[in-house]
């Protein structure tokens, strides 16, 4: 689409809005008049529950732990906690990294451990406490990543802190923090004292509700030791956690991808190997975690997403875990589950992030993760979105984030929609859904995918509808007829709330462009952006009347848009309390 004319900007601000960023997240839903809408029929059957709708969406994370305690970070943590207070989790790298807590891209530190001149351990929990207290004060719980290696424990302490830029070589980040400890007993004592401190500071019951795992993606450059050395690191860490709190929930390995043979060897070790710390057979494993990422690219000048790559990795991980009979029922957390793998990178292929490509991808991919878990027969507990915010960066800078300088991005509104769902998942049929096998094989690159995820909780129904395509180019709207079938006999009416994320609703990025894409918005412009960023109703709530047990709703759903219908059923008069 053509963007509105913009007032002149200073040369110093021009670099902030490069062409690929202006194109990112364009309102593909504003289809030209020559593209007539196509019809879609969606049926949700209230009489066909598929089991509980697990809130797998309630996990988030970031490389930079210190952002959580900063101005915009605290605001976003509060918003995440508000989605489902006491049930949202946050995972962060660098919780044991040496430093004074000054953040940088792909970096953070807490200074939790150092050694005095005699080699004695000195512990300092003050920065860690600020981070965890920020989570807990806002309804968020830690998904504790035990790492990285403190400088005074590393076998290769220099160089220690990397200097990352969004266009740097990824291998440049793997410095002294990524190496094994010079003394595994000191490593274990650090983890033991940290866990014990958490129990003393936050209480046994609270810490029992956390997840604890060792390191990040130790099957690639994040770990500069051997696989056996990682298993040793993990054994000593998990034994230390369990000594401090025997009822702690521990797992791993949070591998890059499914991990293949590396993860299989790790799981074999945990189930049947000799524990390096205890000498006994096995290492406790209360949950299993791996990562899955997509692969966007630029094709003919536009972004093309890689949902097939993402979901195939999810399937591989599920099958790997399910191949162990002892693990078939274990909770699985996809510890990072994203359209691609570098939140702090910038560039043309990341141009999906600010707009509705990211939000519609999220809706379509989360539903398919649930489908895959059901197909493979595994216990999917969570899929963690590795996106947070980047403090004091330019507005809409093109990072993978949920908010920019305190302004929420469209993708966060999809998580708000998901938070309004619950209870039992319902069967959905759509005349324009792309089948799971086709998505796994080819992605969504022919016809668009228009389908839904639905739930019922008592007298409350929720239907999340999306219109998704891998290619960020204009396309026709979907003219959707949504039938809610199988309603209880005699329901006299239903109160319908219709929420939307598209070019005109819940989309601060599209509101920013007509302002001239200002690098420094005025106070009134910031207020307008905040207003545009909220989850938006398409219209005022309306009361509708079912006919013969079916409630029919109609909507026009633009390409890359997501709608949520939240429907409150009025009880028949005979069912009301006397």
From TrEMBL:
Keywords: Glycosidase, Hydrolase, Signal
GO biological process terms, semicolon-separated: carbohydrate metabolic process
EC numbers on record: 3.2.1.37
Active site feature: 217
Annotated InterPro entries: GH (IPR017853), GH39_cat (IPR049166), Glyco_hydro_39 (IPR000514), Glycosyl_Hydrolase_39 (IPR051923)
Signal peptide: 1-23
Pfam families: Glyco_hydro_39
Annotated Glycosyl hydrolases family 39 N-terminal catalytic domain residues: 42-534
A GO molecular-function annotation: xylan 1,4-beta-xylosidase activity
Key word Hydrolase present: yes
Record-stated family: Belongs to the glycosyl hydrolase 39 family.
Protein name per UniProt: Beta-xylosidase
Gene that encodes the chain: xynB_2
